[in-house]
Specification:
The protein is built from two helices and nine strands. The strands form two sheets. A six-stranded mixed β-sheet has the order 4-5-2-3-9-8. A three-stranded mixed β-sheet has the order 1-6-7.
Length: about 120
């Protein structure tokens, strides 16, 4: 199955390093959307050992990725990258479905799901 999200090579190296450091090798990477943040929705990423029966599962760069069915339409077309700068590094998420994001960069809103805004 083609992935719902695209993980760049730079992001995959960082994710694999995090898996090794945390003893999470062989785990799934869960990418999800949850309500919250000042624009209404926020992203979540973490490692899990098992998938749920309603999860969408695919693999990129050797990373097994899980996305729940509720997050799938919001995450379709997302690109996850890792950027390194003089101030450090971090993951970036480019979501073509986002119509607005907050000033702190932690949350977003789509045309179909505004979520419930909270303070940043």
């Amino acid at each position: 199955m083609t992935g719902v999200v695209t993980i760049t090579e730079a992001a995959s190296y960082q994710i694999q390093d995090m898996m090794k450091e945390g003893g999470e090798e062989g785990s799934f990477l869960r990418v999800a959307v949850k309500g919250g943040g000042c624009s209404g929705l926020s992203y979540g990423m973490g490692f899990e050992q098992e998938m749920n029966e309603d999860d969408i599962q695919f693999e990129q760069h050797g990373i097994k990725v899980l996305i729940d069915k509720e997050s799938e339409p919001i995450l379709k077309g997302v690109v996850i990258d890792f950027k390194q700068s003089m101030m450090g590094g971090g993951f970036t998420i480019d979501n073509p479905n986002a119509i607005a994001s907050c000033g702190c960069g932690s949350s977003f809103r789509t045309a179909s799901n505004a979520g419930k805004p909270e303070d940043c």
